[in-house]
Amino acid sequence: MDLSIDMTLDPPTGILAANGELDIFSAHDVAISLREALALGCSRIVIDVAGVSFIDASALGVFARAHASLAAEGGTIEFVEASPQFLRLCSIVRLDKVFGLPEAVVSPRAAFAGGSAG
């Protein structure tokens, strides 16, 4: 599956909605979009990952570098509509705290039950 990126730029806010697979092949496109938003004066980037079906470490690296760049300038990056899988992956690589994400579902049973595992 390919990736489509929809950017809405209204400085100081930029919204990036990604649909498809965020992997080593598409991470460069995401990086270009984020750099464009920063260059146009966006200090708050909102990333909608609801349509992301797959994400790998290269895409997380792009997000981590964008976060570092924004934070150094007093800006923010936010993730919305994050799936339990996205939250879990960020938790595994310890980016959940960096990105300010809620805790990931730890138990697979809890993910299916929609609550805590018992």
Folded structure, characterized:
The protein has 118 residues and is α/β, with parallel strands linked by helices. It has one domain (3-108): Transcription Regulator spoIIAA (2-Layer Sandwich), CATH 3.30.750. It has helices spanning 27-39, 57-72, 84-92, 96-99, 108-113, and strands at residues 3-10, 13-22, 44-55, 76-80. A 4-stranded mixed sheet has the order 1-2-3-4, covered by helices on one side. A hairpin with a 2-residue loop joins strand 1 (3-10) and strand 2.
Q: Quick gist of this model?
A:
By secondary structure, the chain is α/β, with parallel strands linked by helices. Helices cover 41% and strands 30% of the residues.
Question: Which helices and strands appear, and what pairs or packs with what?
Answer:
Layout: E1 3-10, E2 13-22, H1 27-39, E3 44-55, H2 57-72, E4 76-80, H3 84-92, H4 96-99, H5 108-113
Parallel strand pairs: 2-3, 3-4
Antiparallel strand pairs: 1-2
Helix pairs in contact: 1-2
What structural keywords apply?
41% helix, four-stranded mixed β-sheet, 118 residues, alpha/beta, single chain, 30% strand
Q: What count of domains describes the coordinates?
A: 1
Share of helix among residues? 40-55%
Q: Terminal Cα separation, in Å?
A: 36 Å
> Could you name the CATH homologous superfamily?
STAS domain
